[in-house]
TrEMBL record:
Superkingdom, natural source: Bacteria
InterPro entries given in the database record: Phage_head_morphogenesis_dom (IPR006528)
Pfam families, A to Z: Phage_Mu_F
Phage head morphogenesis domain segment(s): 62-186
Full protein name: Mu-like prophage FluMu F protein
């Protein structure tokens, strides 16, 4: 089978009229799940998971996931993604299954991963865009579109032009893409479109379910005729439902512990409550947890930086005088947690649960550049024999600081950070004997 032209695929995406941010949001919320073969996951699970058949190493899967996000975030498209993918595959000595001896199998897998994930992400983003209250009122119908390609699926061609109400069950299973290398799309139809084109609402096609053998599990499963295994679902609808579920269970920052205002709770008890919040955030992946409370030296530095920045803003007429109200709390959002887990595969549950201790008992504080996210400080912490690095920022008028960056720190980088801008170090007599690696 001929590999579709990436340039043609990119041009089709431009017709989707979906903001890249929506597609990126869909891609980012998917968790990496290693599978030996694609069909190991049920269809709807693919809307919640990022996976690729034969990638059984979590670190590699996370790297590919990050490469996809960067391709969309930077707007570089397939060519740059392919270069990064080939480098990742080489690093892990990875080859896809290739029983038929296909030439350039790794490059072809790169395009398949890119096309399937990006088209599904844009499809989900389109569903979200077309299901706002305003869009629901403006566009009562959806229209299936089949786009010309070298090897068209006859059933997909037969669906071209079908116009159905937005709540027709057909869209639950036939919201494009509907298979590997599928170029079909769905467009919204307004009342004006119907009048202008003299269109009429179609009769809802009878969905014929067929039994096929799942090559990954060997089990017989049902799928609509004409829909490739694993594609009989509406990615945007599943994503929307998942986002709603997460919103309902979203973690909210601590106000009290056991009914006692957190300001009066002993530090060890508060840290345990903070760990519980982080653990809940890892599970729910929605909301904001209290990651810890900064040690006094770090609080004083941030407040001083914040005061200087605020005074300059007041002098320039950009802000009014105000008294800072901050108790040293540091918040961790689900977005930051997901980003750091994606970029730093070494971060697991235990590493995140170490945050309250790292923030409360830093070994050193280093300077970081001021950004629109606020004044900041770099925190170097030690747990066991491992160093960690966290960047905390305090924004103008905020009631809590935010954790922006967090990762494992090696000895070389630790020394580099200290040389570049050490602001405070725990005295040696207090720190005791420390490891150097």
């Amino acid at each position: 089978m001929t590999t579709p032209d990436p340039a043609n695929f990119e041009s089709l995406l431009s017709l989707a009229k979906v903001k890249p941010s929506a597609a990126i949001s869909f891609l980012r919320q998917r968790s990496a799940i290693t599978t030996d073969r694609y069909g190991e996951l049920e269809a709807e699970a693919h809307a919640k998971a990022f996976t690729s058949a034969g990638m059984t190493e979590t670190r590699m899967l996370n790297q590919v996931h990050e490469a996809l996000l960067r391709a969309q975030g930077e707007g570089t498209g397939f060519d740059v993604f392919q270069k990064r993918f080939l480098k990742i595959a080489q690093e892990h000595a990875w080859q896809p299954r290739n029983p038929f001896g296909v030439k350039d199998a790794v490059s072809k897998r790169a395009f398949l991963i890119y096309q399937t994930n990006i088209s599904t992400a844009f499809s989900a983003g389109k569903w979200a865009r077309l299901n706002t209250p305003e869009a629901i009122e403006m566009y009562p119908w959806f229209r299936y579109r089949h786009h010309a390609c070298a090897h068209p699926r006859l059933l997909h061609e037969s669906w071209d032009g079908i116009i159905l109400p937005r709540d027709d069950p057909f869209w639950d299973t036939h919201w494009a893409p509907n298979g590997w290398h599928c170029h079909c799309t769905v467009e919204a139809v307004s009342r004006r479109d119907m009048r202008k084109n003299n269109w009429t609402v179609s009769e809802s096609p009878k969905v014929e379910w067929v039994e096929v053998r799942n090559p990954a599990t060997g089990k017989m499963v049902k799928t609509p005729k004409g829909i490739d295994l694993g594609f009989a679902y509406n990615p945007g609808k599943v994503w929307q439902a998942e986002e709603q579920r997460r919103a309902e269970k979203a973690v909210k920052p601590l106000v009290s512990v056991g009914g006692i205002p957190k300001a009066t709770v002993p530090a060890p008890v508060l840290q345990e409550a903070q760990k519980q919040q982080i653990e809940e955030l890892l599970e729910v992946k929605s909301g904001t947890a209290e990651a810890g409370r900064l040690a006094e030296p770090a609080q004083e530095l941030l407040q001083e930086f914040d005061k200087e920045t605020h005074e300059i803003a007041v002098q320039r007429g950009l802000a009014e005088q105000r008294a800072p109200e901050w108790d040293g709390s540091v918040h961790l959002t689900a977005e930051t947690l997901n980003k750091e887990r994606l970029h730093h595969s070494e971060l697991g549950k235990d590493e995140f649960l170490a945050l309250p201790q790292i923030l409360a008992e830093p070994k050193a504080l280093v300077s970081v550049n001021e950004t629109a996210a606020g004044v900041g400080v770099g925190v170097i912490g030690l747990v066991g024999k491992q160093y960690y690095y966290a960047v905390v920022r305090l924004q103008e008028g905020a009631e809590a600081a935010k954790l922006m960056t967090y990762h494992v720190l090696n000895e070389k980088d630790r020394l580099r950070l200290l040389r570049r801008g050490a602001l405070w170090e725990k005295p040696v007599e207090e720190a005791g004997s420390e490891p150097h690696g």
